[in-house]
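Dear colleagues,

For the upcoming journal club I promised to circulate an example of a predicted protein-ligand complex. I picked one with EPZ because it came up in last month's discussion. The inputs are reproduced below in full, followed by the predicted structure.
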Amino acid sequence: MQKLEVFGANKLKGQIKISGSKNASLPILAATLLSNKKIILKNLPKVRDIETMLALLQSLGSKIKLDKNKTIIDNSKQNKKFASYNLVKTMRAGILVLGPLLAKHKSAKVSLPGGCAIGTRPVDIHLKALSKLGVKYKIDQGYVIANAPKGLKGNKIKFPKISVGATENLIIAASFAKGTTILSNCAIEPEINDLVNFLKEMGCNIKWISKRTIKIIGVSKIKEISYSVMFDRIEAGTYLVAAAVTEGNLRISNIVPEIIKTEINLLKKLGSKVMIKKNEVQIIGNRKIKNTKITTAPYPGFPTDLQAQIMVLLCKANKSSIIKEDIFENRFMHVAELNRMGARISTNGNKAIVEGNINFAPAELMATDLRASVSLILAALTAKGKSVINRIYHLDRGYENIEKKLKKVGAKIRRVN
Ligand code: EPZ
């Protein structure tokens, strides 16, 4: 099994180019199923979750061609409606094919995603909302077996809780339903806007009518298009923290700074110097880091996907900090590993108390999920000596070329078998 060796501590300096967004690419790939034409996608990140989603689309009958800088998806013969457990078990976004399959084919059998390290992550909100569009479903042996013999029909739906995936599934399905759908209490993550822009370019009729309410008038024809996916804001945030925590000086490029202003403002508040340019942010880390209290929240709040990374920075603050994880019930698995490196973090339910003034010590570590894995790399970059991070397949699900990007800015990091 592959592992990463990190030799700290170096200040990172230089430029990092941010890849396309994994969490925008996944729903957009699922939405290509609505089409029976060719779609060209650019800026898809080269990460495992995208490979898995492409394999899932192929298993559903999509023809996929990978060119150097683009992915061509031809759905003219896409006709299968069965998403198997084997493909959905490693990637929860597999459930996103349910909406488009039902919209296009009126029936589908999609595996329920398996359990997940960061929480139970049910899909009840997706299913209840789809049933309001006329879908009948049952759960049988771990599969959702669903059909809508008369096709999907628009409706008014208020989500009981803000869910990124359920909002995406319903926007895609409603785009192809008969009549008008109004979805309220929607997630408004930038990745959802990217999906909406993609669908609109394909010819769908979608409009935000208030902050969390969207109106969708179903269409029956989809255009052939070429679309470039937005930047990965979590990857960008991760490297901003990498600069802050190593007291480095990084230019984070190929981004839209406005989209990550919550993160930029927080890093400034904690002591980093941040200069905003057009498609780039330059960040200079400071030895003195202030403590704070953070609660993760749906966008535009502080993202749960950056909670583990910011925790590493707060270990170096002048006093203790508090982090409240309000999205997932079990997203503190990095805590035990960070404590093995000398951190002093205690948890109580969804609250973590992070003592400051920590100098991380190198250690052999175990990655547990995507963002937890990267937080261990950040801590290891500041620890004098050699750290070894095991089970890095989690990392490969969502970070493109992470060692290459870090090496280029001065990190000593290598992958070993
Ligand atoms: C998306 O997951 C992201 N994944 C996650 O990224 C991210 O952490 C999360 O949104 C929150 O921002 C993708 O975009 C592919 P949710 P999703 O539905 O859609 C509960 C990463 O590291 N819920 O907004 O699955 C759920 O359990 C990751 O890249 C229900 O109860 O998240 C959670 O507590 C991991 N029932 C909360 O809602 C449902 O039917 C928010 O989940 C659906 C969700």
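Two points we might discuss: The chain has a mean pLDDT of 96. The pocket of EPZ is lined by residues 23, 26, 92-93, 119, 121-126, 161, 163-166, 187, 304-305, 327-328, 370-371, 398 (CB under 6 Å).

See you all on Thursday,
B. R.
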